[in-house]
Amino acid sequence: QTKISVFPRKSLVLPMLKHLFSGHTVYPSEDVIRQQESFSAIHIPHQIRRMTNMEILSHVKVSHGGMELIAVGQLLKLRKLGVVIHDTDKDGFDSLLHVIGKLNKCLRSLSVQIRSPSAADGSNGFDMSMMYSTYPRLLESLTICGIKSGLPPWIEHLHQLTKVTLHDTSLTESAIHVLGKLVGLRYLRLRHRSYVRGDLTISTREFKNLRFLFIEGPDIVSISFDEGAAPRLERMVWRFTRMVSLVGIGHLLSIRELELEGDCDLEKIGVILRDIKAHPNDPSLKHIPAAGN
């Protein structure tokens, strides 16, 4: 949470440094549901190639062309990488894909954020599918923000992937089915503009091991769970600006906590409350009205 954007050109080299975190997030208003936060990160240190013990580098900003990423590809102990790229920097994005390929045997966590002047834009031109043969096979956590070309096709082969966070990805229903087949997935966060349809359906026999589901933003207004869907889901948080319906709570065999944040018809809350009371697990229901109401 500092506003530092760059180290001095002749910055100190810390060869034993293992963890470097940076980034500054600003919320334009208290209502984080309706307003998109702005995020900044620091440029990659000039002497990063000498910091061979680096294990965590998150988040760093890629300058145009991404030449400094070449050195990052030499950090073979790196297990967590978070990168911010401008939406016009196609060369920088291609350099990032090359680096991820070189680190495919050590990376456990990857966050790629594409930034544009307009928060509603995102990039259709960036595509992670081109690194199909060198994807990070041991990845456990994946965050994608601002890439609208769909999920990378190699995601279905990430058998150790447990956490996925999506933001400004404009996914279709078919992508949700792909995520639903990831047997290792435990945590799923669908943030602002991650899904293009207003209704989200979790289908039968999908998300078999999901424990936590977080949904945020004005796009999704209806959620339904088919019978046999997400049998191990224990906690669900839904932050919305408008809720039309929430159906199928009774189908969630392991549900323990349900949190709803936003303004909605109290009658709908009543319907949900009846489903909660009828559930054999006696799950808790928490409703938080939108800020300022």
From TrEMBL:
Keywords: Repeat. The keyword Repeat applies. Residues 42-285 form the Disease resistance R13L4/SHOC-2-like LRR domain. SUPFAM superfamilies: L domain-like. InterPro entries: LRR_dom_sf, LRR_R13L4/SHOC2-like. It comes from the Eukaryota. This is Disease resistance R13L4/SHOC-2-like LRR domain-containing protein. It comes from Oryza glaberrima.
